[in-house]
Structures are given as structure tokens and as C-alpha cells.
Design a protein that fits this description.
The two termini are 19 Å apart. This protein is of the alpha+beta class. The protein is built from ten helices and 15 strands. It is globular and about 55 Å long. It has a five-stranded mixed beta sheet, sandwiched between helices. Strands 8-15-14-13 form a four-stranded mixed beta sheet, sandwiched between helices. It has a two-stranded antiparallel sheet with strand order 2-3. Helix 3 packs across helix 4 and helix 7 packs parallel to helix 8. The chain folds into two domains: 169 residues, 3-Layer(aba) Sandwich (Peroxisomal Thiolase, Chain A, domain 1); 145 residues, Thiolase/Chalcone synthase (Peroxisomal Thiolase, Chain A, domain 1). It binds acetyl coenzyme *A. Acetyl coenzyme *A binds next to helix 2, helix 6, helix 7 and strand 14.
Length: 321
């Protein structure tokens, strides 16, 4: 049994910045409302011809470079996305082709904001059991394509982007434990339904995101509270061993509540929601990459990643970087 260790990280954001002030020209909102409720100041929005695969490719190439790994050495490709470019084939197959990887398994994971944590956990199992040696795990989203831009309660929250890691077999410790959960009883609190014909057939995939924000907020805080406790108990580590929290970036108030539960100061939390908004499955790997690139997250540090999203799905990965 090998350990699965993060060998390199990458991130990619569309060039276009959309500020709160710009949104306030389109819908009845204000910078003050958005910042005080969510912490978001701006987000990136993909160009009309920029696909989820384009963003995934940018992040993947950076992660491969950082890992010192050739694309042809990758033997598993997982893309976590809620906004695939096609109904099929999966975005992982599109990405695989772009990167010139032919043959190894490639598939998408759909667990919305928890998708990257799900994908990383799956890749870790492949590596630990010897089914793969080097996995490329990407979270990539163009959430702007499934937002109702007239709905002020959701359009201010989301952004586009991609983050990636190369996970490799190693004798050194890497992923220490991971915990995944879901409860479909909450399917309607945060959803993007397909458009159906009167007779119940699929007319158009991915209708706009709808959300009962208050209820999602309450559930996120209580669920993440239980999740971090579960993760620590299973790992045998103490709160004090955690150097960095890399949370899903939905809302600074949810993030602050989780940090408090772990006894961490906000200086130990990687926060990108102010600049990226909620990029769904891309948010955790983008934040992780930001922390690695600016030198805060160092080799050997213990890092807790956690996420919560539609489904509901939620999960955590504890790792030594
Ligand atoms: N600008 C101004 N006013 C707004 C806006 C806006 N963009 N959006 C909603 N409002 C108004 C509402 O219409 C409402 O007005 P009313 O009192 O006249 O009816 C008022 O603000 C309060 O609305 P609430 O929904 O109660 O506002 P709340 O304080 O709960 O904040 C928010 C909303 C930010 C969405 C919060 O509930 C939240 O963060 N929830 C978590 C959901 C989340 O982050 N989801 C992302 C995906 S899931 C995940 O990633 C965890």
C-alpha cells in the first residue's frame, strides 16, 4: 500500500473581473450588502468562448509543471465539475485529449461544491491500492453559465475557475484520512434543475441555480462542525497539529465558524472567496494552490480541506503536504 501525496498544484482563472459595483448596475444590490453577507468583492467570469475544459487545462498544465510530471505519466484523470461542457463525454475525457493522454481511466465527479474533495478521495484510493501511480485531479467550473443573472440572491455569489493537483504514490505521508457524506433529502434546498417537457422528458440540461440561502447557511455551519470533529477523531491528530484550513469558499461567515471550531486563527485559513466568489468544485484546489504559490503552505504542513454543497454533499481531506 502506497501513500498518496500531492506532488504539484495549479490554478487558472478567466481574465475578466466582475466587481460588486458592476453587478449593482445589473440587479438591485450593493457592494456593502454583498461584502457584509458573504465577504465577496469580485469574481472572475469566463469569456463567451471559454469552456470548462479550457479552465481545467490551464490549471492542469500548471499542476503538471509544478509536479515535474509529464502528461503521459498520468494514469488517472478525474475532473470534478457541475458545469461540464457536454452531457457526454465527460470533461475528463475532453481534458485528457487536450493533454495528449490516451488510454488511462478518465471520468467526471459530480458532487457540486464537494466535488474536488470527492475526486481527491477517489484518486487516493486508486493510488493506495496500486491501481494508479499518478493521478490528475481537477475541479473546474463555469458557474456563470447556470446562473440567473436577474436573480440577485444567487448571481452575486458565484464565479468561474479551475484548480488542480497531481497526486502521486509515495513512501512519505500524504493524505492521512478522508471522509465523504451526502444526504439527498436536501436536494431541493440548493439545486439547478433540468428544463423538462410537459411529458417529463429532458428539454435542456442545467436550468438556473436556485437556493434557500438561509437554510443552506445553517446546515453548512452545523454539518461542517460535525465533519471537522469526525476527521480529527479518525486521524488521531489534535487540533493543534493542523497548520492550515483550506475550506470551500462560499462565504466568509461559514469559513470563520469552521475555523473557530478548530481553534484556528483566521491567519491559518486560506481565503480566496473575496477575489474568486464561490467557484463550486474549483474553490478548494484554487485556494490550496494560492496558499502553496504564495509560500504560506510549506512541505510537511498538516492541512485540512473541507467542503459542503448541493445534494447535500460534504467531505473533508486531512493531509500532510
Ligand atoms: N443584494 C441585496 N439584497 C439581497 C440580495 C442581494 N444580492 N440577495 C438577497 N437580498 C435580500 C433578500 O431579498 C431579503 O430581502 P427581504 O428581507 O426584503 O425579503 C434580504 O436580503 C435578506 O435575505 P436573506 O436570504 O435572508 O439573506 P441572508 O442574510 O441569509 O444572506 C446569503 C443570504 C448570503 C445567500 C446567505 O444565506 C448565505 O450565505 N447562505 C449560504 C449559501 C451559500 O453560500 N451557498 C452557496 C452554495 S452552497 C455552498 O457552497 C455552501
Amino acid at each position: 500500500m502506497s501513500n498518496a501525496r500531492i506532488l504539484g498544484t495549479g490554478g487558472f482563472l478567466p481574465a475578466r473581473v466582475v466587481t460588486n459595483a458592476e453587478l449593482a448596475q445589473r440587479v438591485d444590490t450593493s457592494d456593502e450588502w454583498i461584502v457584509s453577507r458573504t465577504g465577496i468583492r469580485e469574481r472572475r467570469i469566463a469569456a463567451p468562448d471559454e469552456s470548462t475544459c479550457d479552465l481545467a487545462e490551464g490549471a492542469a498544465r500548471q499542476a503538471l509543471d509544478a509536479a515535474g510530471c509529464l502528461a503521459t505519466e498520468i494514469d488517472l484523470v478525474i475532473v470534478a465539475t457541475t458545469t461540464p461542457d457536454r452531457v457526454f463525454p465527460g470533461t475528463a475525457c475532453l481534458l485528457q485529449d487536450r493533454l495528449g493522454i490516451h488510454g488511462p481511466a478518465a471520468f467526471d465527479v459530480q458532487a457540486v461544491c464537494s466535488g474536488f474533495v470527492y475526486g481527491l478521495t477517489i484518486a487516493e484510493k486508486f493510488i493506495r491500492t496500486g491501481s494508479a501511480k499518478r493521478a490528475l485531479v481537477v475541479g473546474a467550473e463555469t458557474m456563470s453559465r447556470i446562473i440567473d443573472w436577474q436573480d440577485r440572491s444567487t448571481c452575486v455569489l458565484f464565479g468561474d475557475g479551475a484548480g488542480a493537483v497531481v497526486l502521486g504514490a509515495s513512501d512519505e505521508p500524504g493524505i492521512l484520512s478522508s471522509h465523504l457524506h451526502a444526504d439527498g433529502a436536501y436536494k431541493d434546498l440548493l439545486t439547478a434543475k433540468n428544463t423538462m417537457t410537459d411529458s417529463g422528458c429532458l428539454l435542456r440540461a442545467a436550468g438556473p441555480v436556485t437556493m434557500r440561502g438561509n437554510e443552506v447557511f445553517r446546515m453548512a455551519v452545523t454539518t461542517l462542525d460535525g465533519l471537522v470533529g469526525e476527521t480529527l477523531a479518525a486521524s488521531g491528530l489534535q487540533q493543534a497539529d493542523i497548520k492550515w484550513l483550506v475550506p470551500h469558499q462560499a462565504n466568509t461567515r461559514i469559513i470563520a465558524a469552521t475555523a473557530k471550531r478548530l481553534g484556528l486563527s483566521m491567519d491559518q485559513v486560506i481565503v480566496t472567496v473575496d477575489r474568486h466568489g464561490n467557484t463550486s468544485a474549483a474553490s478548494v484546489p484554487l485556494a490550496f494552490d494560492a496558499g502553496v504559490r504564495d509560500g504560506r503552505i510549506q512541505r510537511g504542513d498538516v492541512v485540512l480541506m473541507e467542503a459542503f454543497g448541493g445534494g447535500f454533499t460534504w467531505g473533508a481531506v486531512l493531509l500532510r503536504y
